[in-house]
């Protein structure tokens, strides 16, 4: 009932994606401004910081790359690649909704980022392709423009914090998780285990690696406990 | 003092970083194609998806070494959850309320 009031059936997936993208884009812009300033202060020419955001479009990996680059190119790439390994399983969950052949699927898969991927999840766990691509189409230019603003004007990260923009991603992800846990209660205990394992892993490894480690309880238990259960049991809704 | 970095190496690194991202994101969808996964694999991916989302929440809240944990975000996130649960508001409205409450808490804290 409530879900119906939130998901307007008259809005297409693209419209919902663009709308969500605007909300996420505000946070993305603030974070990108922080990255631009951070990169410039660490010796990256502003135009290269913008180029990095246009080509890589990956916040945490870009921060890691710039942080570790003074130690050498390969350590920097190693750190960034570990952080972004999470995109392999995340993108795999979208495989059955993407369209076209090799090139088009490769292109559409680039719309997988944390915010868009999370936003595109229906409460039953399936992915809405148009929402994911639409949200990314708004966030990508916001990320590049924010980087340009930060790299050329060097605003203080404290400004972003003062207006509360850093809260938008944790809030948004929490809301999506809430919806998913209500819709797929069978995975609740696994998700709580993932949260606990990630929290502990964060004490010793980078964020992207902590996420990967965090999904292992779900992977192991799902493989063992749910493999032989009927599909209907897994799709039980409250 | 801003350090000087080698521009050529930086450009090479940026291109390699971008290529790595393209491969990471494309490998699953390209290899799987539009085939429906077997039911068991589909359930595993759903469980992993929910687990990854839970991990994403905690990573954005705590940060590496828990250095990013900031209690001033909690009232805003709590308010957003309450709005979602009891008023059925959209994600966008709830997230913007979280931002506003967080800013207000920081103003008075």
Question: What is the element layout, followed by pairings?
Answer:
The complex is a heterodimer of chains A (238) and B (109).
Chain A: H1 2-6, H2 13-41, H3 46-56, H4 59-68, H5 73-84, H6 87-92, H7 102-109, H8 114-119, H9 129-153, H10 157-162, H11 168-183, H12 188-201, H13 207-214, H14 216-226, H15 231-234
Chain B: H1 7-32, H2 39-62, H3 74-87, H4 91-108
The largest sheet of chain A, given as strand count, sense and whether it forms a barrel, is:
none
Secondary structure tally, helices of chain B: 4
Average of per-residue pLDDT values of chain A: 83
Biggest interface: A-B, 111 and 82 residues
User: Which percent range describes the beta-strand content of chain A?
Assistant: under 5%
Structural class of chain A: mainly alpha
Helix percent of chain B reads over 70%
Let me know the largest β-sheet of chain B: none
What's the order of the H and E elements of chain B?
HHHH
Uncertain residue ranges of chain B: none
How far apart are the termini of chain B?
33 Å
DSSP strand count of chain B? 0
Question: What is the mean predicted local confidence, pLDDT of chain B?
Answer: 87
Description:
The complex is a heterodimer of chains A (238) and B (109). Chain A is mainly alpha-helical and 238 residues long. Chain A is globular and about 50 Å long. The model of chain A is unreliable at 1-6 (pLDDT under 50). Helix content of chain A is 72%, strand content 0%. Chain A has helices spanning 2-6, 13-41, 46-56, 59-68, 73-84, 87-92, 102-109, 114-119, 129-153, 157-162, 168-183, 188-201, 207-214, 216-226, 231-234. By secondary structure, chain B is an all-alpha fold. In chain B, 75% of the residues lie in helices and 0% in strands. Chain B is built from 4 helices and no strands. Chain B has helices spanning 7-32, 39-62, 74-87, 91-108. In chain B, helix 3 packs antiparallel against helix 4 (91-108). The longest helix of chain B is centred in the first third of the chain and has 26 residues, at 7-32. Chain B is flat and about 45 Å long. The mean pLDDT of chain B is 87. The interface between A and B is large, with 111 and 82 residues.
């Amino acid at each position: 009932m409530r879900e119906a009031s939130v998901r307007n059936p008259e809005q297409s997936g693209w419209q919902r994606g663009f709308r969500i993208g605007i909300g996420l884009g505000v946070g993305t812009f603030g974070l990108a401004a922080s990255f631009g300033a951070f990169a410039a202060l660490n010796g990256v020419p502003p135009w290269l910081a913008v180029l990095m955001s246009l080509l890589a479009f990956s916040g945490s990996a870009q921060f890691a790359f710039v942080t570790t680059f003074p130690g050498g190119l390969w350590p920097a790439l190693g750190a960034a690649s570990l952080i972004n390994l999470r995109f392999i399983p995340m993108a795999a969950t979208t495989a059955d909704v993407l369209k076209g052949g090799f090139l088009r699927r490769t292109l559409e898969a680039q719309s997988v980022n944390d915010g868009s991927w999370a936003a595109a999840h229906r409460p039953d766990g399936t992915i809405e392709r148009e929402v994911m691509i639409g949200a990314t189409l708004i966030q990508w230019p916001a990320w590049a423009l924010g980087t340009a603003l930060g790299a050329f004007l060097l605003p203080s990260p404290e400004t972003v914090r003062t207006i509360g923009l850093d809260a938008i991603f944790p809030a948004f992800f929490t809301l999506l998780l809430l919806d998913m846990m209500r819709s797929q209660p069978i995975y609740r205990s696994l998700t709580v285990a993932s949260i606990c394992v990630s929290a502990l892993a964060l004490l010793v490894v980078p964020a992207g690696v902590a996420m990967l480690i965090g999904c292992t309880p779900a992977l192991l238990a799902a493989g063992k406990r749910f493999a032989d259960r009927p599909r209907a049991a897994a799709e039980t809704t409250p | 003092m801003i350090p000087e970095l080698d521009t050529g190496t930086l450009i090479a690194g940026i291109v390699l970083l971008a290529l790595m991202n393209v491969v990471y994101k494309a490998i699953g969808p390209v290899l799987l194609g539009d085939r429906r996964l077997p039911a068991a694999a589909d359930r595993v991916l759903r469980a992993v998806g929910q687990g990854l989302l839970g991990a994403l929440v905690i990573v954005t809240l705590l940060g590496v070494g828990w250095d990013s944990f900031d209690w001033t975000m909690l009232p805003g996130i709590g308010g957003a959850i309450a709005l979602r649960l009891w008023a059925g508001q959209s994600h966008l409205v709830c997230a913007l309320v979280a931002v506003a409450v967080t800013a207000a808490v920081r103003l008075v804290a």
